[in-house]
Amino acid sequence: MVDLKAQYEKIKPEIDTAIAEVITSTAFINGPIVKEFQADLETYLGVKHVIPCGNGTDALQVAMMALGLKPGDEVIAPSFTFIATAEVIALLGLTPVLVDVDAETFNIDPESLKRAITPKTKAIVPVHLFGQSADMEAIMEIADKHGLFVIEDACQAIGADYIFKNGRKSKVGTIGHVGCTSFFPSKNLGCYGDGGAIFTNDDKLAAKLLSVVNHGMTVRYYHDDIGVNSRLDSIQAAVLKVKLSHLDEYATARQQAASFYDKAFSGNPKLKIPARFSNSTHVFHQYTLVLNQVDRQKLIEFLTSREIPAMVYYPVPIHLQKAYLDPRYKPGDFPITEFLSGIVVSLPMHTELDAEQLNHITSSVLEFVSA
Q: Which of 37, 207, 237, 271 is placed for a possible disulfide with 265 were both Cys, Cβ 3.0 to 4.6 Å?
């Protein structure tokens, strides 16, 4: 699904030098390179504060802790997403309130969101799924009306732009009260281990976030907050600093691959290509097809026989996962989420796809659906 080795080979001298410099310095934790990467990412995103942390799940947890959410508070999130979004809500003793998604973009549906708000609702977690933004203008209007925090889960869409109705652009993750991302190796901006970051334009919140990620300390050995230990190590920061300088070219490569897929599959009644939300650019963390009268499992097996990987994100909605079963929800409550979980498939999507590979993938898919 991704070719990290080929990507590394293209930037090998830069990466090797950056890692060697960290090893030579022996500043493995909170070294100068972490601050340098932080500053570079702040500039790239156009955000006042970036707080690096250990991973994307930690980023979500720390954001909720810093916002002062308390057990019993309700936090709204989509049911069609990776489990981490709801996992941290549950871990903190908060109440996950799940909602359906838009049938075209797969992102949280603002109308479903409105219906889920109660007096206990304190926050919304829109997930920018597969590489494009949720409808942030509508979400922020709802949040402002009800006095809710917005925690953007931008783990799959770093670098994407949201375009407001007035033409203004903002990077995803910088629009709500706080944004979160993951630097897992397969992400659009991925390191060579685990890593994450939190974004905000709020000075007071940034100070709180910085304290929470560091054991609740602002002054060494003086603990003003309940915190966690969540750090981005220097080697990962060095890798990310190099790769950040290539992020836009990586996005272009993914968009070109998506255009190739689009051209091959458009007009085929059995394959629905990914919709583009008009208010967002798409950086294609995944390229996900909606199948029509196609046996998904047999398609995956056929592609596997051709040495083509294919993945299902996500085969079981959160509200039907064993660990998250809740009497408030039953099968059929979120029809779009349940439909998508049963019918979508994602094809290889990364920066190193070439014409030969793309031809092999598309011709194989078309051969199967035409049989």
A: 271
Tell me the pLDDT tens digit for each residue of 194-242: 999 999 999 999 999 999 999 999 999 999 999 999 999 999 999 999 9
Residue appearing with tokens 């629009």: 175
> Can you name the residues that pair with 153 across neighbouring β-strands?
127, 180
pLDDT for 63 equals 98
Distances (CA, A) of 315 to 102, 145, 183, 336: 17, 34, 23, 13
Name the token pair of 345: 């498939």
Q: Which residues face 198 on adjacent strands? A: 51, 180
Q: Where are the domains of the chain?
A: 4-244, 247-370
Contact assessment for residue 134 and residue 156, using Cβ atoms and an 8 Å cutoff = no
Task: Determine the topology of domain 4-244 in CATH.
Answer: Aspartate Aminotransferase; domain 2 (3.40.640)
pLDDT confidence of residue 73: 98
Give me the amino acid identity at 291: L
Q: Are 292 and 139 in contact (CB under 8 A)?
A: no
Give the per-residue pLDDT at 371: 85
Contact 35, 242 (CB under 8 A): no
- Residue 359: the pLDDT is 98
Collect the ranges in the chain with pLDDT lower than 50: none
From CA 149, how far away is CA 113, in angstroms rounded?
13
Q: Tell me, letter by letter, the H, E, C secondary structure of the chain.
A: CCCHHHHHHHCHHHHHHHHHHHHHHCCCCCCHHHHHHHHHHHHHHCCCEEEEECCHHHHHHHHHHHCCCCCCCEEEEECCCCCHHHHHHHHCCCEEEEECECCCCCCECHHHHHHHCCCCEEEECCECHHHECCCHHHHHHHHHHHCCEEEEECCCCCCCEEECCCCCEEECCCCCCEEEEECCCCCCCCCCCCCEEEEECCHHHHHHHHHHHECCEEECCEECCCCCECCCCHHHHHHHHHHHCCHHHHHHHHHHHHHHHHHHHCCCCCEECCCCCCCECECCCCEEEEECCCCHHHHHHHHHHCCCCCECCCCCCHHHCHHHCCCCCCCCCCHHHHHHHHHEEEECCCCCCCHHHHHHHHHHHHHHHHC
